[in-house]
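Annex B, item 7. Sequence and C-alpha cells for protein A, then protein B.
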Amino acid sequence: MKPIAWPDHLLTLTEFAALPEDRSRYYELQEGVLTGAPRPGTWHQRVANSMAFELEDVLPGEWEPICGMEVIVEERWPPTVRVPDVAIVPTRLIDRDMQMPSASDLLGVVEVSVPGSRTLDTVTKCSEYATAGIPLYWQVDPEPSVTLTDYRLAGDVYRIGWRGGGRFTSTELVRMCLDLELLGHRRSGGVP
C-alpha cells in the first residue's frame, strides 16, 4: 500500500476525514498539522487491548472501551484529532456508528506510552485532553515494568490521583482493581 501524499497546508477536519486509508502509519492532526507515527508493536497492542478488556468488564452499559478511535480534541481552527489507545465512548455513539466523536463526549482515554511517545503522552496529550474536558486520563508506561498515572480533571487541568506500579484501584468514575503487571501478558481463557 502506498503511503498518503503529505499535505502542504494545515488541514480541516473534513480534509483529515477524507484522507485515504493508510495502514503503514497511524495519523493524528495537531493544530491542523498532519502527524504520523509508526504503527505500535504487538506488545503495545496487547497492553492496550488488555486495558480495553478490563474496562469492558467494569463499565456500566452506557459506556464502551474502543481501541484506536479518532477523537476530535479541538474542533475550532486549527483542529486537533487524536487516536487514543483506548477511548471510553458512550454506547449511543457506537450504536449510531459515529466515526469521530468529540472529546467532550468521552468519559476517559488511555494512552500506552512507548519510546517516541512519552513526552507527547505526558505533556501534549495530557494538556489537550484536560483542556477538552475529558474527566479521566490514564497513561500506562510498560517499560521497564508497567506503571500507570491516573489523571483526574480538576477544572481545566489534570491532577495526579495516583502513580505507580503493582495494583491500581480506582473508585471514582470507573470502579476497578487492576494488576498492572498482568497487562503485558495474555489473558487466560480461550478455547483449548
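Protein B:
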Amino acid sequence: MERAKVIIHMYMSIDGKIDGDWDGLPGDKISGDYYDDQLFKLGSANANGSNTIVMYAAKGKPDLSKYDGQRIEYRDWVPSEIKSATWDVSYDRRGRAGWEKNYFPYAGRKNRAIEVITKQASRNYLAFLQSMEIPYLVCGEREINFAESLVKLKKYFDIKTMVLGGGALINGAFLKAELVDQISLVIAPYISGDSKKKGTFNTLGEFVNQRFHVTQTKKLGDGGVHLIYDRD
C-alpha cells in the first residue's frame, strides 16, 4: 500500500463516550493500562486532531510575533536528521498547537512530533516549528488532504501504520474520506450516562455507508473488552 494504514484506536465507556467521570477510576485501571499498552503495538505513530493535541500534548502559547517578516515557503519541511522509532502526529490545519518540546511522552516513549498543516497556518507558525525542530507536512490549501498526508507519512517517516486516537471530529473526517482500515475499541466497564460527552465518531450528522466486521473480541481482567473491526 502506498499510504500508511489507519487504525482508529479509542478508549470508551459502554455507552460509547470517549471521556467523562468514569475515565481513570480504580475499577478501569486494567482496561486503561491495556489501551495505552496496545497503541504502539498497533502502529508506530499516534495521531490526533488539533483539539486533542492542544489539550494534552501542546498546551503552550508561543509568541509568534518574534518570527515576523519570515518568508518561508509553504512546502514540506522534513530534515533528514530527524529520526524516531515512534511518532506523535498532529492534524492541525490552522497551526494551533503550542509545542513546548518536540516530542510527547506517552506509553513510556518520547514520541517525536510531526505537524500536518494547511496553508491556513501562518508563516510565523512554520518558523516556530522549524525553531523547535518539528517537521511539518503541508497537505491542502484550507482543508487537510488526509490521503496525501498518509502517503507522505509513509514516504518520509516510514510510518506503515498510523494509530488515530481522536477526537471525534478527526475520526469522523477520516471515516468520510474512506481512509479507515481498522477500528480498535477498548471498552471500559462503566457507563457514562452523560449525553453531552462525545462519542467515538462525529461525522457532522452524515451517515457514512461503510461496513466493518468484528475480527477480535478479548475480555479484560476488570470487566472491560477489546474489540477489533476490519473494514469489509
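Comment on protein B: The radius of gyration is 18 Å.
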